[in-house]
Amino acid sequence: MEEKRDTENLIASDTAAAPITPMEEVDVPAAATPLGRSRVRSLARSAGALLAFAMVGLLVLYGASRVFEPKNNGGVGGLNAAHQAAEAFLGEPENSLDALFIGDSETYSALSPVEIWKDAGIPSYTCAIGKQYLTYSKSLLNRALAVQNPKVVMIEGNSLFRPFDEQKLVKTAVKDAFPIFERHDRWKALTPEDFVAAPENTWVDDMKGFRLKWGIRPADASKYMASDERVQEVPELTMTVLRQMADACRADGAQMVFIATPSTKNWSQARHNGMVKVAEELGIDWIDLNTGDDEVAIDWDTDTRDYGDHLNYYGATKASRAVADILRDRYGLQDHRADAGDTYRHWDRAVRAYERQIEEAEHFNATCLAPLGSDLRATLPLER
């Protein structure tokens, strides 16, 4: 009995292995690891495929945009007449424009670059279409700064009070990046050249974006710029875009300026007060041709073509000459009429075309309109 070994005591009780239970045998974490890695790899492959698909889609859009983009700025499909004139600065000699005017129909009716050239020899361009939103103004500015080096960029105040939303801002950015969304209807006019040729900008607008109108429809100016303490606010999204435009001008060495052209229907003291506030907030010069020291002496019986909404040729001549003085005296822009070389030679042709249109308009007024009574004359569709 003494020699019998107690095998149960060979292992001390405090070092004996704990018994394994069925539950502990199942609860083995190592089995979950391969499933987690597999899922991560699957998600990575899906993300990679999605990214590749997006990249291919962007490349297709980019390539299609290059094909659908007009190969010339001279109206070879893709641009209507209004946009064609507004963007014809692309055909001007590179870095030859010292001033740009950007805005809506108030701008293209009031500011004549050819008149400014005749008066002060300052090369300028009017970048404007009817009811222009500031989103398009920003696009025009960016396109112009890519090929021109203006010293002064004047932004028409009227367009700042035309509200837009984030959706319009995004749509404009997409169209700028992928022109096919704006030019998709060109598919009918595509030629083999569209697939291989690079765009060329050879067309020059002799009117430099200005539209000469001579109809006369008197305005009621009895309440024009009446005293008013109210302040018409500029929308905050507009302010955001204006800051971006101001930054772009500063980066290019241009001075951005706000300007209001004469209009009894579109301008008021409340808007003037609003522009004073905006100009102070952004640190930008503000010129109001409707009031104060910069007021232009518009005769509202003869100088408007549509009851004070827009100026006609007679009013535009006055406004343009006032702006020529401001550009020369206040901002120091130089007279280039005596410069040698080819850079400004085409302005002589522009002056001839401009004066020919004026001659035709004045002859029409003298022979066809003057004999009519003022009431009947005001009802005729005289604009062209």
From TrEMBL:
The chain crosses the membrane at residues 47-64. InterPro entries: SGNH_hydro_sf. This is SGNH/GDSL hydrolase family protein. SUPFAM superfamilies: SGNH hydrolase. Keywords: Membrane, Transmembrane, Transmembrane helix.
